[in-house]
Amino acid sequence: MSDLTSPATSEPLVVIDRVGKSFGAVDVLKEVSLTVAAGDVLSLIGPSGSGKTTLLRCVNYLETYERGLITIAGETVGIEPLPDGRRRRKSDRQIAALRAQVGMVFQHYNLFPHLDVLENLTVAPCRVHGEAPGPVRERALALLEQVGLADKRHRYPSELSGGQQQRVAIARALTMQPRLLLLDEVTSALDPELVGEVLDVITSLAADGITMMIVTHEMAFAREVSTSVAFMADGRLIESGAPEAIFEAPDHERLRSFMQRYRAGNQL
Amino acid sequence: MTTAMLMSSGMYLAQGALVTIGLSLGIIAVATVAGMLLALLRLYSWKPLGLLAAAYGLVARGVPLLVLLIGSYFSLPYLGLDLPLWLVVVLVGGLYFGAYVAEVFRAALAAVPRTQWDAGRALGMRRVQLFTIVILPQARRLSLPPYLNVALVAVKNTSLVSAIGGWELVAAGREIGERTMEILPAYLAVAAFYFVICFSISQIGRHVEKKMRYV
């Protein structure tokens, strides 16, 4: 969308450049290239096993990758390419520092069960990144307010519904004030009636201009919230573009049949 | 038996019980530290060290404590180490039960879902921070019941000390039995003391477990 207005000088926030990854003999990612500009919402769609989640986990280096390079705001993710062409893993400190700027929300929430809701939000900024407790607490409470759970701040995760836990997980990621938020199938584990409340929160974040990469099977949501959509299959990026183009006028046969199957499933 | 004799016998047994409690606390302290170390070696260290820790566990759990106690108490002087009996018991008992505690901690640490590591990493936590802030508190709670179980066995196994000439609760009971010719009542009293000690540990454990519960 910003292609017409901003010249080539504005570097995208995330650059994924010909990234490849193998699990043993299986190539799970093949030459995937993508960019995400600041403020963009990119949805990754595609069949199960297509590599969407793996790609997302490479972006904050929860997974390593063997080929290509990912950069966030000009900084390479997890790997230092050496002048002689070899690759060196960055130090744990560097990797942790980068992850602190990239929020992630997981399919199964992964809240810390031994901490209450507020502590889940404040523990990393206060105890790991050395921020003063006062401002962090205020920020956390404001975020809980935003996701509609301020009254649950002293509850433990196990006392909350799945939808509430996932909203806490989103607030936890945002308390870190990340430049980029990664959402990995965040509604897939939820009961159908709880999906809406989580999607509403994400939609409001998109409206606030938070840069997001979203792996999702919620096609209607992806179409509505995204600035661009990328379709993956068999570890390859098949097609990417504006949501209208992807959903209405797909170029590739693979994407057309995926959409057809999706629509057929939806009409049942 | 007169009341005075009963009283003095009771006091004598109580002294034996104090020795038993002291030995038990020493053994459990050593076992806890050793167990934590062994578990960490096995789970997170350099592979060869982990294998060494595993081998240690197999040996320690594969030999009776009595054999280890006799073996070390009577052979250490030949190595120039003339340690008092109580210290040998605390060290050998502690290292022996450390192998069991290591299994308890290892299972508890491994039982914390991998996804908790993911969550911590994604928040920029480094290994040690993640371990102490996220993993350890959850593992501690999981390990408490089996850990107490090991502690109870350790308390009761201090009775082996009387078999290598040491003095504690069982030895005190035997002396009283021989002196008063009331063998069965003497051992019943000894059993009662053990029960009270172990019951107290269980109760404290239940209390701690409740406090650690996060619904």
Describe this structure in words.
The complex is a heterodimer of chains A (268) and B (215). Chain A is built from 9 helices and 12 strands. Chain A is an alpha/beta fold and 268 residues long. Chain B is an all-alpha fold. Helix content of chain B is 83%, strand content 0%. Chains A and B meet through helix 2, strand 8 and helix 3 of A and helix 5 and helix 6 of B.
Helices and strands in order:
The complex is a heterodimer of chains A (268) and B (215).
Chain A: E1 14-23, E2 26-36, E3 41-45, H1 52-59, E4 67-72, E5 75-76, E6 79-81, E7 87-89, H2 92-99, E8 102-105, H3 117-128, H4 133-146, H5 162-175, E9 180-184, H6 192-207, E10 212-215, H7 219-225, E11 228-233, E12 236-241, H8 243-248, H9 253-267
Parallel strand pairs in A: 3-10, 3-11, 8-9, 9-10
Antiparallel strand pairs in A: 1-2, 1-4, 4-5, 6-7, 11-12
Chain B: H1 3-44, H2 47-62, H3 65-75, H4 85-111, H5 114-122, H6 127-157, H7 169-180, H8 183-212
Helix pairs in contact in B: 1-2, 1-4, 1-6, 1-7, 1-8, 2-4, 3-4, 4-6, 5-6, 6-8, 7-8
Q: What summary fits the major beta sheet of chain A?
A: 6 strands, mixed
Number of strands of chain A: 12
Question: Could you list the spans of chain B in which at least 5 consecutive residues all have pLDDT below 50?
Answer: none
Order of helices and strands of chain A: EEEHEEEEHEHHHEHEHEEHH
Strand order of the biggest β-sheet of chain A? 8-9-10-3-11-12
- Percentage of residues assigned to helices of chain A: 25-40%
H/E element order of chain B = HHHHHHHH
The backbone outline of chain B, from C-alpha atoms, is flat
Q: In angstroms, what separates the terminal alpha carbons of chain A?
A: 35 Å
Task: Round the Cα radius of gyration of chain B to an integer and report it.
Answer: 21 Å
In the predicted model, the low-confidence regions of chain A spanning at least 5 consecutive residues are 1-8
Question: What's the rounded overall pLDDT mean of chain A?
Answer: 93
